[in-house]
Design goal:
Length: about 350
């Protein structure tokens, strides 16, 4: 009995027998050519046509979908398929032209949390490394919906996916002044603080990465971070078991410390205690574990240098650069201190009297 569908095994054998050099090349017969083309066309998807079909479903009112037996899982599956299609930048840019962008953004407000989360993930794929689509999403007020889901949604998975769409490299906020302004107006920094206090490690990591980017882009935002009490949360995260979270938190603390010309970024007893604990923890690690925390070792030493104007004990213990590792550049400390040094040089000796440092913590 013949199998249903194309005979792919037969096609593979035929292709190999005509391409491995065991037989001389020859012209295909009309029957072979017809069979081959039918086999291939049966598996060919007209992507634009399929995206139009998905768009029609997204445009259909919810009650009509329910009446026709379409479930939330069916919608998630369609969004999964759409995400695969828009991985192509050309297809991503075509989505707006065929009317699919606005209904996709509408799903960010769907009553089902999984659909809201999946829609945000599709938007992330759509805008990543794609300035035209980024602009279209901004024009369609997509950033506002994403910011609302990030800061206010009751489901942490929805919040995480929304933050991913907002902050992926580059996307709606990174290298986008209008996006950063919208983020601040939507109380995005409070959202980041709340994300750091959540129980989701993934949510915390995304928030830390975006926070570090924002502080690097605009040092004046440190005042916002200080007022919102980020430092205590960052110090707690700097002692977490998850290495990536620790490293990201230490990276943000370093940005805060070297951005404060008056030394107030290092005035916390808790910060010194954290660094001492991390040095002790690193000292007790096995060789294998030490190799996995190279960035953390460097961050702890750099933060100690910035705060206390001396190297940490990691160097004396031979833990800053392990045998076989590339040595750190001899001027690595001054490179880390470069923003602080430039600011000090600019200020010169304008004032002899220093005010009491304002404590961050």
């Amino acid at each position: 009995m013949a199998k249903d569908g194309p005979n792919w095994d037969g096609l593979l054998k035929w292709s190999l027998s005509h391409a491995d050099g065991t037989q001389p090349t020859r012209q295909l017969s009309e029957e072979e050519r017809k069979w081959f083309m039918e086999a291939m066309q049966s598996q060919t998807v007209d992507v634009v046509k399929r995206m139009k079909e998905i768009t029609l479903v997204m445009q259909t009112p919810q009650h009509v979908l329910v009446d026709h037996g379409v479930t939330s899982q069916d919608i998630e599956d369609l969004l999964d398929e759409l995400q695969e299609h828009v991985e192509s930048i050309d297809m991503a840019n075509d989505l707006h032209a065929i009317g699919g962008l606005v209904p996709l953004l509408g799903f960010l407000k769907n009553s089902h949390a999984n659909i809201r989360a999946k829609a945000a993930d599709v938007v992330r794929t759509l805008v990543q490394n794609n300035p035209p689509s980024q602009e279209l999403v901004m024009e369609a007020n997509g950033l506002e919906s994403l910011l609302s889901n990030f800061t206010s949604d009751a489901d942490v998975h929805v919040q995480t996916q929304a933050l991913g769409a907002i902050s992926c490299k580059p996307a709606l906020i990174r290298h986008n002044k209008a996006g950063v302004s919208a983020f601040k107006l939507a109380d995005g920094y409070t959202g980041l603080r709340d994300a750091l206090a959540s129980d989701s490690v993934r949510f915390q990591r995304k928030a830390l990465n975006l926070l570090q980017y924002l502080l690097q882009e605009d040092v004046s935002d440190q005042s916002i971070v200080t007022e919102l009490g980020f430092s205590r949360v960052l110090i707690r995260l700097g002692s977490r078991d998850d290495a990536e979270t620790r490293e990201a938190a230490l990276g943000v603390l370093l940005e805060l410390a070297r951005g404060k010309n008056d030394g107030s970024g290092c005035s916390s007893v808790e910060l010194r205690q954290l660094l001492e604990e991390r040095i002790e923890g690193i000292s007790l690690m096995s060789q294998e574990d030490l190799e996995t925390v190279k960035e953390e070792r460097q961050l702890v030493d750099a933060l100690w240098r910035v705060c206390y104007d001396e190297p940490s004990s990691l160097g004396e213990k031979g833990l800053l650069v392990l045998p076989g590792e590339d040595a750190l550049p001899p001027d690595v400390a001054s490179k880390l201190l470069e923003p602080l040094l430039r600011a000090s040089a600019a200020n010169g000796n304008a004032t002899e009297k220093k005010e009491e440092p304002v404590k961050l913590l």
